Amino acid sequence: MTNTQLYLAIGLPILFNFGILLTFFVLLNGNMNARFDGARAEFNDRFNALNQRFDDMRDLWRAELRRVEEVLDARLKHLEER
């Protein structure tokens, strides 16, 4: 067996396996990107819903505090008139 035959016998399977691994990683990377994009969109939707919920709670508290403030103002006016 000559050196060229030895190089071909060892080198061709290595190159073939390298090509298969490269193809596998490219396909895996594309699939993972799609999965991460889907997860990112889902998290964004959840956080947006949570932000909306906090905004609604803040508006509710402001309305309640305004009502309490109006009641206290009315009571203080009533006490001042006495």
Give an overview of the whole structure.
This protein is mainly α. The protein contains one helix and no strands.
Distance between the termini: 118 Å
Count of DSSP H/I helices: 1
Order of helix and strand elements from N to C terminus: H
Radius of gyration over all CA atoms, rounded: 35 Å
Strand content: under 5%
Q: Spans of 5+ residues with little confidence (pLDDT < 50)?
A: none
Quick one: how many beta strands?
0
Helix content: over 70%
Overall mean pLDDT: 90
Coarse structural class = mainly alpha
Q: Please tell me what the overall shape is.
A: rod-shaped
| Biggest sheet features | none
Task: Please render the helix and strand layout as text.
Elements: H1 3-81
Q: Which tags fit this structure?
A:
96% helix
Can you describe this structure in just a few lines?
By secondary structure, the chain is an all-alpha fold.
